[in-house]
Amino acid sequence: MTSPAASLSAVRVPKWAFAVSVLGLIVTYLVLQENGLALGASSGLLHEFFHDGRHALGVPCH
Amino acid sequence: MTTYKSLALRGVAAGGIAGVASALVQLLVTEIPIRAALAVEEARAPAGEEAGHSHGGEEELVSRGAQVVGGMLGVVIVGIAVGLVFATAYALSKRWFTGSTPFSRSFAFGAAVFGAVALLPWLKYPANPPGVGDPETVNYRTALYLGVVVAGLVIVWGASWLAEQLRAQSQPVRTTAVLLAVAAATAVVLLAFPAPPDTIPADMPVNVLWQFRLSSLAQLATLYVGIGVVFGLLIDPATRRVKASEKAAVA
């Protein structure tokens, strides 16, 4: 097995990786925090649908 | 295991698996105090009155059954999204326990992320079941919560930076110095951020409140530490070598 440090430097992170990460954060926001800022009227449904998960993961809620 | 894409796919898989585990904890553990808290909330509001948020009232937008399923689905989706970000951060990290195996690095990283984005906010602003939060303060509470999450991530990043700076020191000295710095930074964050703005309503039983909080913490630990463990299992060459030798033994 190669040394862990060597395998580390071998990982090349492409630029689109940052777009992917931002997408991940946006999805997290929509599930956990959407209160109407991003989606407007349809947010109520989303907000209520994910309601239990938001509470369970400790995110502030009404 | 040298491309970002292979790491990202394993991050998604790890997030999905840890998310399902966390969703099962929610179904079997966290839903118990949630149900108790909803009963307290329902007993409170006179029939027909909308408190701006339908927690199983008469004119509900989403049924209770759908909320249970949706909540579990939400945890799985968050797990996948966090797994993707986790894998990216792992691929970018050049100084995180560089002498350790990929499994140890991933496990330690998952534990650190749990501390930063779950345990620290939980200590400062403990999770509350339905029927506790004041709708008037939700944006303020959200800002405080996100502030603590960011502060926690800065502490983790700072710890690895400090460890790198002290690499000339012996390992016990370095570990002690980093632990002291993390403890000091944590204390500063806990003292600097304002107290939770809401008072707990008198009709919310203390045992329901704390059963919920501990369930929530268990669920967060399952999610974040789980991502670290599963991702580590998926990327460590040692686990693949076992499979190869098993195949060789069979053949």
TrEMBL record, chain A:
Keyword Transmembrane helix carried by entry: yes
Cross-referenced InterPro entries: CbtB_put
Keywords: Membrane, Transmembrane, Transmembrane helix
Transmembrane segments: 16-32
Entry-linked Pfam families: CbtB
Annotated protein name in UniProt: Probable cobalt transporter subunit (CbtB)
Organism: Lentzea flaviverrucosa
